[in-house]
Amino acid sequence: MKDFIQVLTRDLKVALRRWSELCNPLIFFLIVASLFPLAISPEASDLKRVGTGVLWISALLSSLLALDGLFRDDAEDGSMEQLILSPVPLTIVITAKMLAHWLITGLPLVVIAPVVALSYYMPLDTLTTLILALVLATPTLSVLGAIGAALTVGLRRGGPIVGLLVLPLTGPVLIFGTRATDLAVQGESAAGPLYLLGALLALAIALGPLATSAAIRVSLE
Amino acid sequence: MYLRWFHKLSSPPYFYRLASILSPWLSGLSIALIAAGTYGGLVLAPPDYLQGDGFRMIYVHVPSAYLGMMAYVVMAMAAAVGFIWRIKLAHAVAVSAAPLGASFTLLGLVTGAIWGKPMWGTFWQWSDARLVFFLMLFFLYMGYLALRGVTEDRDKADRLSAVLAVVGVINIPIIHYSVEWWTTLHQGPTITRLDGPSITMDMLVPLLVMIAGFSFFFVWLLFVRLRGEILVREQKSRWAQELMQRSRV
Fold first, then answer.
1. Does ipTM surpass 0.85 in this model?
2. Is residue B191 part of a domain?
3. Which end of chain A is less congested by CB atoms within 10 angstroms, N or C?
4. Distances from the Cα of B34 to the Cαs of B190, B192, B215, in angstroms?
């Protein structure tokens, strides 16, 4: 537990000292979300209908953007190798790094998404469901993304294909996330899809670090 | 006893010879079964009371979709075996299965679209979960092949893609149960039901023959690809060089 917190605080400190990189995914999220009305139609009725989908796709794409830095810097300056060699189980280190990554990129998204949702004319009382769904879904996306980042960290030309590896796996998250927000917009209970999002998160947390650390070991040898 | 046989099986020269001996049998068996299944499906099976002759697409669609998923399971299991026990031959199996699985998946998607147009009135339906996840399966194959494509070192490519293949297995049960979880256009299970298949024997038997034929076809192609893959991987070893020398004469 002590090691977990140490890795976590170290990663947070490193991230907070690079403000510009920290903001990139967030600004990307806002840009994508504000381009959709230009591409579809600025009509309130249209925006209301596509709002949830836009939010979820923007969140997905911006979570991809931050992935490259997740392990690459540590791998290049050699600190990742030290972490592999250290007696601390690698899965604990990886889980701490995932949590740090989520706190840096996922959490701001959860905070800012309701503002975007309001601009898409989504009813005020659906926002709690939206926030809940995002809180449950974005960590799963972080875990999936970490697997992709770990698979490509050792490759010179790896960066661009992370999306190809990760996006096919995000289908269920997207389905249940949109379903929850849709149900809330229609004024029905969104408990079912939210439970399923929670189940996916539990599965991701349980198995994701194993896959990620296996991939990291192979990538860096 | 079995362990020793298994150990022997993982030796490339032994497996290469075994695959060479089995290949003609597999090809004959698959051609015979597919021919019999085609005759049974197109001529012997009665027309469907609802879909008429249109239902006969099932004899291509179901076997290819089944093998699209089965090939992924084979690939992931081989990849896991290769990753855990570091058996090189298992990695070769996974690599050889991937393009075949991708092709069967594509065939399943295309035949499904052709079948869907007259029966459902549409080539594609986004609200049908099975279609969407089956498409994701195709993308998973593509991601697997892309990851191998950008990894220069073969040993590294083997083990990295193995991790990806195993992670992607989660998609298979989702596809399998999607017709029960989300009831949309796709019909529910018709063959594997507790109360027996909900399809008449005249239609079922050609389908099963066809599935068996496609399966043997898959194993045959797998062995063909595998022999090439083994030779490429073993090009520096003496038995492979001797074999190449002999076949050149």
1. no
2. yes
3. N
4. 21, 22, 10
